[in-house]
């Protein structure tokens, strides 16, 4: 008989178990699958957000979102569409019941063991398919699985062989979805355009200063360098605003500081309002870069 045998909720960053089924299954195959599940829970941060591991007579499915992973063990012939519907229901209920701050602050295993009440009720429903016909839309889930099938794992991905979980883990070579930024807002677009304008103004002044490089004293060369640096800083701020890269906030703040220094150096060539415009634009772009954070997965992303 195909059925859901075990389910667990873990924290992705360190594999800390937050909740799990409290029923006791003495089947040797299930116990072995639980060992695989425990190893897998430590590797969730390295894996795609939806995966399936096919073991002997049993399958392990999982989804992860917003820093929490939801795993289950079922018979090998249990329909994938029902398995991922089951995990999706756990996910929706868990993120509704517990906020991110409390999840991140948890230090003890099974800090949310009371969630097992919902796991048990949901297991009973999914182990009695007749009760599901009016409560979930299997057609939508089936379509989603066809469009975005789960990543198939092997024992090598898990770092196991011959049922043992003590072997060294080879590096995972699967490709996880690329991280994206939140959609750009109207203030973000305005900040980008203003930064481009400031960069263009700096570039024009740099070329103008170069024309006089042989007529003025040696300070003119320094002015040219300052204008070119200002141009590069403005363009790099635009890049940081629209793209996802490491240390975005720090880099943007450093570019803001560089723009301030460049304007301070050429203050004799600009009036107060021009300097204020360049500095304010740089500060505004830095703020928009800080506000545009990496995109979190929607609650139904793993459906």
TrEMBL record:
Gene3D superfamilies tied to this protein:
Longin domain
Show which residues constitute the signal peptide: none
What membrane topology is annotated for this entry? Multi-pass membrane protein
Which SUPFAM superfamilies does the record match to this protein? SNARE-like (SSF64356)
Entries under PROSITE patterns matching the protein: LONGIN (PS50859)
User: According to its record, what are the GO cellular component terms?
Assistant: endoplasmic reticulum membrane
Q: Which UniProt keywords apply?
A: Endoplasmic reticulum, ER-Golgi transport, Membrane, Protein transport, Transmembrane, Transmembrane helix, Transport
The UniProt similarity line reads: Belongs to the synaptobrevin family.
Q: Which PANTHER family does the protein's record reference?
A: LONGIN DOMAIN-CONTAINING PROTEIN, VESICLE-TRAFFICKING PROTEIN SEC22A
Per the entry, what this protein does is: May be involved in vesicle transport between the ER and the Golgi complex.
Q: What is this protein called?
A: SEC22 homolog A, vesicle trafficking protein
- Species of origin: Callorhinchus milii (Ghost shark)
């Amino acid at each position: 008989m195909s059925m859901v045998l075990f389910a667990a909720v873990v924290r992705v960053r360190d594999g800390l178990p937050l909740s799990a089924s409290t029923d006791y299954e003495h089947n040797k195959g299930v116990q072995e699958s639980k060992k695989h599940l425990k190893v897998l829970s430590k590797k969730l941060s390295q894996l795609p957000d939806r995966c399936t591991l096919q073991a002997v007579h049993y399958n392990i499915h999982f989804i992860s979102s917003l820093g929490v992973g939801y795993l289950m063990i079922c018979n090998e012939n249990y329909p994938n569409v029902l398995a991922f519907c089951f995990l999706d229901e756990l996910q929706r209920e868990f993120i509704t019941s517990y906020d991110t701050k409390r999840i991140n602050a948890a230090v003890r295993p099974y800090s949310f063991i009371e969630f097992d009440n919902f796991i048990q009720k949901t297991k009973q429903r999914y182990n009695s398919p007749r009760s599901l016909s009016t409560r979930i839309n299997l057609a939508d889930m089936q379509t989603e699985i066809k469009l975005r099938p789960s990543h198939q794992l092997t024992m090598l991905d898990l770092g196991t062989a011959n049922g043992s979980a003590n072997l060294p883990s080879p590096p995972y070579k699967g490709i996880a979805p690329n991280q994206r930024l939140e959609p750009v807002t109207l203030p973000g677009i305005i900040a980008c355009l203003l930064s481009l304008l400031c960069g263009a103004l700096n570039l024009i002044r740099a070329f103008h200063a170069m024309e006089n490089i042989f007529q003025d004293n040696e300070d003119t060369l320094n002015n040219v360098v300052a204008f070119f640096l200002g141009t590069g800083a403005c363009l790099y701020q635009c890049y940081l605003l629209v793209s996802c890269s490491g240390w975005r906030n720090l880099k943007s703040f450093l570019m803001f500081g560089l723009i301030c220094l460049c304007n301070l150096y050429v203050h004799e060539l600009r009036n107060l309002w021009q300097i204020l415009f360049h500095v304010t634009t740089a500060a505004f772009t830095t703020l928009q870069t800080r506000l545009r954070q990496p995109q979190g997965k929607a609650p139904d992303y793993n459906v």
